[in-house]
Amino acid sequence: MSAGATTGMTLVRRTVGFMKTVTLGEGNTPLIRSLRVGPHEGLDRLFFKLENTNPSGSYKDRFVAAEVEQVLASGAKGCLATSSGNTGSALAAYCARYGLPCVVLVGETTPAGKLAQMQAHGARVLRVRGFLSSPSCKRLSQLCLTRRRN
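Structure (tokenized):
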């Protein structure tokens, strides 16, 4: 891409009226033509979006970048999230880049690779028995939502 070229995400940011400053280069993931599914279904122009080329390997980077932008704008001192994998990995990466402490609550079945990715970015990862079904997790989620609205 040439210097000064407009990326897809930059164009979206300008269109919605703000210029985003939080980024790790997410977006502009390639479209790959389907060689089997499309022709099998009679769709000559079926494409798949390769979201695994985002910085953390997940489409969740797009959402997390926007959320970290809001966190920084609000003056919050860190991030706390629940995740089964991809969101936690993306959040840990963006928090590391922008110097925000990150705590991620995960379940007992969260894949080891995702845990390693979160920890590699410096997130504090807490495994919770009964993840999201325990009264403690439900209360924590309610508290986070209440504080966010205020």
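Residues 1-6, 8-16 have pLDDT under 50 and may be disordered. The CA atoms of residues 139 and 145 lie 10 Å apart.
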